[in-house]
Amino acid sequence: MNDRGARRRLAAALLAWFTSVGFLNLAQAADTAATAGVDHPEARLAAAIDAMQDGRYAIATETLRKLLKDQPNFRLAQLLYGQALALRSGACIGSPLADDEDPKLRDLLAEYRVRHDSQRALPPPGQVPAMLLKLSDELRHAVVVDLSKGRTYVIENDHGSLRTIRNFYSGIGRSGFGKQSEGDLRTPVGIYRITGWMSDDALPPLYGAGALPLSYPNSWDRALSRTGGGIWLHGVPPETYVRAPRSSEGCVTFANGDLLALRQLVTVGGAISATPVILADSVDWQPAAKLAGDRERLTRTIEGWRSRWAALDTEAYLDHYAKDFRTDDGLDKAAFTDYKRKVNAGKRRIEVGVDDLSLFAYPGEPGLVLAQFMQNYRSDNFTSSSRKDQYWRRQPDGQWKIVRELNR
Question: Which CATH architecture has domain 127-286?
Fold first, then answer.
């Protein structure tokens, strides 16, 4: 098989096999790494595969050779380099990509599918994750992980105007997502904050360049009796470029370079400016203007809660809490009602401020919204300032009620 037509037939057979297992038309692939720049390994891999599609095998092999010089442990690139060389030479060989009996090859095929699934990884300009109803101006960025697609997005917040500035391939737990209990090897679905940074010199090689621990379990997880801990965003061992899509014990994994790039963009700790990390079962991208209605309704509802409290209209204030409401420390609606009535009865005046409000449609929980804000409280005998998490659920009659809250 030495003529150009034979090489094209081999390439066509391989690409037909790619399509049969659900791989993306790779003309779209550059979009998946567009925000990372043309020198990002993912963009270079996409360019090489695009060249293979077009029969430009010399360009494909040279692109992959240079990529592997910079990233010698990029195993998917190694495999495709072998394919590109075979196509270029016209050698009559089978495709090792079709050998799904080898677990290492299965992992590489899974990585390939995740990188190039049936939807563009980068949404059209002007679309944002629908769960980001409102970000406080104090939040410069939000991190959204689409667990079903193995893709992490960094969303920049410019005074309420949101745009995607980076996106990364990411691996998750061996058993998928939807963590319920310790040891189930699943990645949680929820909204978390980054509690700190752990550098590589403080960690075993498994974690690569470092780790960003997350605040799992959060208040909602505890309400649902979810257990476990130690959920991090972290790197990969030095002998590999990335890990397989499902290979961790529940953490989210990144190429070491991507993790370090992410570290530069996030704010860690417990302050109101700490970057939120949303681990989502799926991400619905919508035009930003389409979120305005829900944002305005919820903002008005929260203002009603605040103003009734400040007016010492205790019964109207308590009506904002659902029948199944519980505090994070275990008070149910009846106990909370008794407590608030007694407290407010001893007050002559109350001032309540709600500042730096953010609103998130909670992933995996239809009709649930997390409101986070700074609560500044002052009465005739007490003053406090705290960060508040409130979980609002849409009731069957369409009203929004608080089902859980905590100060921290």
Answer: Beta Barrel (2.40)
190-232 per-position pLDDT tens digit: 999 999 999 999 999 999 999 999 999 999 999 999 999 999 9
Token couple for 110? 């899974």
| Its pTM surpasses 0.70 | yes
For residues 243-251, average pLDDT: 91
CA distances from 376 to 79, 319, 384 (A): 58, 21, 6
Q: In this structure, which amino acid lies at residue 231?
A: I
Which CATH number does 289-407 carry? 3.10.450.50
Q: Which runs of consecutive H residues, i.e. helices, occur in 3-128?
A: 4-20, 29-32, 41-53, 57-70, 75-89, 103-115
Closest by CA position to 180, among listed 232, 243, 223, 233: 223
Alpha-carbon dihedral sign for residues 341, 343, 346, 352: negative
Per-domain residue ranges of the chain: 4-115, 127-286, 289-407
| Residue 152 CA from chain centroid, whole number | 5
Beta bridge partners of 369: 361, 392
Q: Is 383 helix (H, G, I), strand (E, B) or coil?
A: strand
Q: Which residues pair with 129 in a beta bridge?
A: 285
Nearest to 181 by CA among 148, 215, 217: 217
Closest alpha carbon to 36 in 44, 27, 28: 44
Residue 167 belongs to what H/E stretch? strand 161-169
